Amino acid sequence: MARRMMSRLGQWSSYVFAVDFDTNSDPIYFALASKQSERPQVFRNVLADEMCYSLHVQSDDKIERAKFYGGLKKKLSKELPPECTILEMSIFQPNVKDSVIKGYFLKDASKSSATERVLGELLRNDPVYVCSYLCGGEDRQWSQHLWSNTEDGWVEVLEKYCVVPAEKPVHHPSTLNIINYDVFYSFEDAYKVLQQCVDIIPESKAVLELVDQRLKSKEKTDFPVIVIEGLDATGKTTLTESLTEALGATLLKSPPQCLSPWRARFDTEPPLIRRAFYALGNYLTAGQIGQEARQAPVIVDRYWHSTAAYAIATAVGGKLGNLPQAGSEVYGWPGDLLRPSLVLMLSLSSQERMRRLQVRGQDKTMEEEELEANHLFRQKVEEAYQRIEGPACVTVDASPSPDQVLQQVLLLIREKCHL
Ligand SMILES: Nc1ncnc2c1ncn2[C@@H]1O[C@H](COP(=O)(O)OP(=O)(O)OP(=O)(O)O)[C@@H](O)[C@H]1O
Ligand SMILES: Nc1ccn([C@@H]2O[C@H](COP(=O)(O)O)[C@@H](O)[C@H]2O)c(=O)n1
Prior knowledge:
The protein is α/β, with parallel strands linked by helices.
């Protein structure tokens, strides 16, 4: 019954479907209608003679949805014929926060019955909606067919709708669910996620126990707190170590050392859970900062900027222009997290960063395509870093020699923190 209620066109009339056919272009947006539109252009240029399907998760539980969505991609990649392309799809209410339901769109060039068999199995056993798409008639119009399970094990078409073009929304759909899915703006919101994971991820209990014992930090510290941020291999470790020595400071990191035993475990989890883990890491580090900054200046290797910038850049699909505008609330600082005195972001050209990575023995075997996708991702991380406020970061040119970078940073610290 619930499925029937959800599937009615009335329920979906305010929703738009977005399919990412190509990360360098806008998604294709379409909606459902009872009658065809006069502009039935949807899919015409991107689909040849292929069968198409879509799947999306049906569950009211955020954790279950996140876990299932992550696992679904792996399952589909393993079980579907290799000629089947799996694309990301979102169903959302244009410009309405927290309205996104994630799914996948399949382009199947296999011409075999294997895909329908796999999807039928999924429909029977998992919390998913499955639809197929057909193009027919003289004017080659697309229609969507919602599948349903019958008692004797067959799949039937429950409802059929016309696929009509939809306007490009002001906000890219991937920006609508950032708050409390990818970025957490209070201790409580991040804590709640791990609390809800205790039964499915037993390690959450140990993390929560550590977090429960965290030191509480005051809003103001006696000595300055300087955070060093930047992409990997921009020189954070090199600089934080020399800076600590030069200033007689204490060096801290986020996530803190005490979370190391669980970091790799949470890195395998979907963004909702992984990001909640890193968010809690910042609160643990904040407790240590509060303690240490009573006696000496504190240098911190990565903190909130890293947590938010990486999360936003990963969540936002496609082009740099899809990032939320500067000034958006997603770039705000959590009200209950200790604010540092100064945040410096080390910036490097991608060529020099790649050179340093290669000297360190990484990224040698990356394919061109992967490098390109990485380039776009890193551009988004740097842009997000620069848009985060409260405090905003100051960009430092990290290309000179280690000693020149240190001298440049010492000058900045003296100027901004009067050290
Ligand atoms: N100013 C510099 N000029 C040239 N090489 C540098 C400079 N700073 C650091 N390096 C070298 O670049 C590599 C990366 O530096 P480092 O490990 O300090 O970066 P990182 O930002 O801490 O990296 P990650 O985040 O991946 O741990 C190292 O091999 C280091 O010796
Ligand atoms: N405060 C932090 C620190 C790190 N992260 C996440 O970890 C990754 C980078 O860490 P490295 O140790 O490899 O430099 C990156 O994916 C960040 O998402 C974080 O979220 N918050």
